[in-house]
C-alpha cells in the first residue's frame, strides 16, 4: 500500500498473478528476486496462496469486533517491529483488509478519524478455525 493510492488492492493483483503461473511447466527453473533459485514453482505458489488465505481468515476472525490496521499487526507478525517494519507491516495489513473488502468479507468504517475493519461474512463461523492458523510471520514479506 502507498499513501498515493489509499484505496488500491495490490494483494488482489498479486494473488491473481499467482493463478496465472500455476500452469507453468513444473520443470521451470525459477530465478526469484529474493532468495535462491529453485525448481517447483507450482508448489511454491500454492504455499504462498495458502499462507495468505490463512492470514486473511485469521484477520477476519480477529475483526469480529471493529479493529484498526495497527491492531491486526500481532495477528500477522509475531515479533516486535521497529518503525520501518511497522510501516511496511501496516501496508501489508491494509492490503489484506482491502482484498477482504473486495471479497465482501470485511467492511471499513471511519470512526473518530480512524478506519476500523469489521467482519461481515455470515459464513465466517463455519469457515473459522481459531488457534489453528499458521504462526504469524517474523517480518513483513517482501516479494
3D structure, described in words:
There is one protein chain. The chain is α+β, with helices and mostly antiparallel strands and 143 residues long. The protein contains five helices and four strands, in the order αββαααββα. The strands form two sheets. The chain has a two-stranded antiparallel sheet with strand order 1-2. Strands 3-4 form a two-stranded antiparallel sheet. α1 (10-21) runs antiparallel to α2 (41-62). It is globular.
Quick recap of the structure?
The chain is of the alpha+beta class.
Helix coverage percent: 40-55%
* Class per helix and strand makeup: alpha+beta
What is the strand arrangement across the widest sheet?
A: 1-2
**Tell me, what's the shape?**
globular
Q: Over all CA atoms, what is the radius of gyration?
A: 16 Å
H/E series: HEEHHHEEH
Low-confidence stretches: none
β-sheet strand percentage: 5-15%
Strand element count: 4
Q: How many H/I helices?
A: 5
Average of the residue pLDDT scores? 90
Please outline the major beta sheet: 2 strands, antiparallel
- The span between the termini is 13 Å
Amino acid at each position: 500500500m502507498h499513501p498515493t493510492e489509499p484505496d488500491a488492492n495490490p494483494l488482489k493483483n498479486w494473488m491473481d498473478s499467482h493463478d496465472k503461473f500455476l500452469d507453468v511447466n513444473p520443470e521451470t527453473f525459477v530465478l526469484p528476486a529474493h532468495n535462491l533459485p529453485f525448481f517447483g514453482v507450482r508448489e511454491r505458489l500454492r504455499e504462498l496462496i495458502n499462507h495468505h488465505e490463512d492470514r486473511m481468515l485469521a484477520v477476519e476472525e480477529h475483526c469480529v469486533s471493529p479493529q484498526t490496521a495497527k491492531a491486526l499487526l500481532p495477528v500477522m507478525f509475531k515479533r516486535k517491529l521497529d518503525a520501518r517494519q511497522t510501516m511496511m507491516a501496516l501496508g501489508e495489513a491494509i492490503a489484506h483488509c482491502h482484498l477482504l473488502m473486495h471479497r465482501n468479507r470485511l467492511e471499513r468504517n471511519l470512526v473518530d478519524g480512524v478506519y476500523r475493519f469489521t467482519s461481515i461474512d455470515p459464513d465466517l463461523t463455519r469457515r473459522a478455525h481459531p488457534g489453528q492458523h499458521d504462526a504469524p510471520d517474523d517480518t513483513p514479506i517482501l516479494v
